[in-house]
């Protein structure tokens, strides 16, 4: 099985035109931050006829080019014509260049082993896919790559929820370190389809308690917790100021005891989620929901 690997620094060297032979060279940028991808100009110029058309069609999809846009390959000039402008590859944005060079490199290796891209099979590893990419590209890059390379298995890491666009349930794996520094897979992840970027960030995929400013988030959490928590006599332990109560009312923290029970459970859940990791996260949400139900029954 052909295996290709690309690290977070997907740079190219215009003086490097050929990749050394062997499997290690195909994954070197994953492990060596100074390693570069071969510059594709000479290889692209060598492609003619239907083979060049195949490469150009694939690049058109991945680079999100319109019908009137085109790839320009001349003896001493490599450029993209897009939106009526001709831009040399070297002058493109960092993200555009990295995707262009990486995609050509993948296609180059596949066509060396297979007759066409539709049947080509390989495993492609990409670290930190989102590096240098515009948000619009982050949302479509994986869908585009899988469209032009349908039988290639991509294994990709990312810290950006936008890169999960186009993924199906079961295709995303979350790994975390537990208290003993062991890597564990998070189980029972929520359904990913239809989730917004903010929902993804605050779900178990990324584990943020909120997307608010961290200082504001902490202050509001403390405030909400003070309002919701009660002592053993059922009395509020802290009496917030009128201004604090006004903020809490806007946040719909809750004016009834039932609402405060839900708020208290939510605060405890978020606090506990910060301390748990790995498989322990799988049951935390269910335990929190059960606790709320039992508390409401007893209310």
UniProtKB/TrEMBL annotation:
InterPro entries: ATPase_AAA_core, Bact_Antivir_Def_Nuclease, P-loop_NTPase
Organism per entry: Pseudomonas nabeulensis
Domain named ATPase AAA-type core: residues: 77-162
Domain of life: Bacteria
An example molecular function term from Gene Ontology annotations: ATP binding
PANTHER family in UniProt: ATP/GTP PHOSPHATASE, EXCINUCLEASE ATPASE SUBUNIT
Protein name according to UniProt: ATPase AAA-type core domain-containing protein
């Amino acid at each position: 099985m052909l295996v290709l690997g690309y690290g977070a620094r997907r740079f190219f060297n215009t003086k490097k035109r050929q990749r050394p032979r062997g499997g290690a060279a195909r994954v070197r940028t994953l492990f060596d931050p100074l390693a570069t991808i071969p510059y594709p100009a000479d290889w692209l110029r060598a492609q003619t006829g239907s083979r060049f058309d195949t490469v150009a069609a694939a690049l058109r999809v991945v680079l999100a080019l319109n019908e009137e846009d085109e790839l320009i390959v001349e003896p001493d000039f490599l450029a993209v014509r897009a939106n009526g402008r001709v831009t040399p590859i070297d002058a493109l944005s960092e993200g555009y260049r990295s995707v262009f060079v990486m995609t050509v490199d993948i296609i180059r290796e596949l066509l060396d082993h297979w007759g066409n891209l539709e049947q080509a099979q390989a495993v492609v590893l990409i670290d930190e896919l989102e590096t240098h990419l515009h948000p619009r590209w982050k949302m479509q890059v994986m869908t585009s790559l899988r469209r032009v390379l349908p039988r290639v298995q991509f294994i990709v890491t990312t810290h950006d929820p936008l890169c999960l666009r186009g993924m199906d349930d079961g295709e995303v794996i979350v790994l975390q370190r537990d208290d003993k520094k062991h890597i564990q897979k998070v189980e029972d992840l929520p359904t990913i389809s239809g989730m917004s970027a903010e929902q993804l960030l605050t779900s178990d995929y990324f584990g943020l308690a909120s997307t608010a400013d961290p200082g504001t988030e902490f202050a509001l959490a403390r405030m909400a917790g003070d309002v919701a928590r009660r002592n053993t006599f059922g009395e509020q332990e802290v009496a917030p100021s009128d201004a604090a109560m006004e903020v809490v009312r806007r946040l719909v923290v809750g004016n009834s005891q039932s609402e405060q029970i839900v708020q208290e459970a939510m605060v405890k859940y978020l606090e506990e989620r910060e301390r748990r990791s790995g498989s322990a996260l799988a049951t935390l949400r269910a335990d929190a929901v059960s606790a709320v139900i039992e508390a409401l029954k007893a209310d």
